Amino acid sequence: MFSSTVINYGNATGIVVYTGMDTAIGRVQQQVQEAAEEEEDTPLKKKLDEFAEKLSILIGVVCLLVWVMNYNNMYDEIHGGFVKGCIYYFKIAIALAVAAIPEGLPAVITTCLALGTRKMAKNNAIVRRLPSVETLGCTTVICSDKTGTLTKNQMTVVKFGMCDGKGGMKVYNVPQSTGSAYNTITKETIGKKNSTFDADYANNQLLFHSIATGCTINNTSRIDINNGKFTAVGNPTNCALLVLAEKIYGESVDV
User: Fold this and answer.
1) Which of 53, 80, 102, 213 is most buried, most CB within 10 Å of its CB?
2) CA 254 to CA 230: how far, in whole Å?
3) Backbone angles phi, psi at 163, to 5 degrees
């Protein structure tokens, strides 16, 4: 029995064999921590590392050329000897390297990311980390699951099945209302007679009502009508089941 196991009732006797990080839950936590530490570098950090590597090579080459170009000047008596002349021009090359390093680059990048965060905040987009701004800026394609829940936060039942008493399954199509997924009125099917559904409904009202009752009682949501518009309060799935129950009671289901 793993730690964090939910027990409703009963008695048991057990022996503790693992504790702490050696338990199953502990191993899961350890894997989560290891995954968090293996974060991949952001595109901006990769480009900065590449830029720093190229800049270091370029500065090194330039400094070496500056030092070599002054080879003849190293023999000047003003330096007090060839060795001291080498050291003098070597110091000049080092000073050139220090001057060429863009020390203000990190501050400029941080400022730009902060300005980007500020612009996103004006559009009600809050980010927790500054690198998220540049990651979003490098994004060219956003793949999104375009479902009814994502776009309108609405869901609707389109089909449901029932056993036909002969070991088979009958599937019924639920007509969809126009304007709102929570509209229980379907003008195309209300009053429709002599359909297979009407015959099955007449002979098996108890079964259909059992489905509708289950969708209604085992539900914590509701459908409200405000100014003639249907609005859902609660989980979209539960609201869709409420609409299905209304349509079943209204006999507005096609085969």
Assistant:
1) 213
2) 22
3) -70, 135
Q: Is residue 186 within 8 Å of residue 180, measured between CB atoms?
A: no
Residues in the chain, overall count: 255
Distance (Å, rounded) from C-alpha 126 to C-alpha 119? Answer: 10
Say what the pTM is.
0.41
pLDDT in tens, 51-108: 888 888 888 888 888 888 887 777 777 777 778 888 888 888 888 888 888 878 888 8
Nearest residue to 123 (alpha-carbon basis) of 136, 135, 109, 110: 136
Q: Where are the domains of the chain?
A: 1-39, 43-100, 105-137, 149-249
Is 22 assigned a catalytic role? no
Q: Is 139 helix (H, G, I), strand (E, B) or coil?
A: coil
The amino acid occupying position 115 is L
Tell me how many degrees the CA angle 60-64-68 measures, rounded to the nearest 5: 175
Distance of CA 97 to the CA centre of its chain: 44
- Pick from 132, 149, 146: nearest CA to 43: 132
In angstroms, what CA-CA distances link 75 with 8, 90, 91, 93, 206? Answer: 93, 14, 16, 17, 111
State which H helix or E strand residue 46 sits in. helix 43-69
Q: State which residues of the chain have pLDDT below 70.
A: 2-3, 38-39, 145-151, 165, 177-180, 184-199, 250-255
Name the active-site residue from 49, 145, 198, 254. 145
Tell me the C-alpha distance between 43 and 100, whole Å: 24
Under 8 Å between Cβ of 155 and 239 = yes
Q: How far apart are CA 59 and CA 254, in angstroms?
A: 78
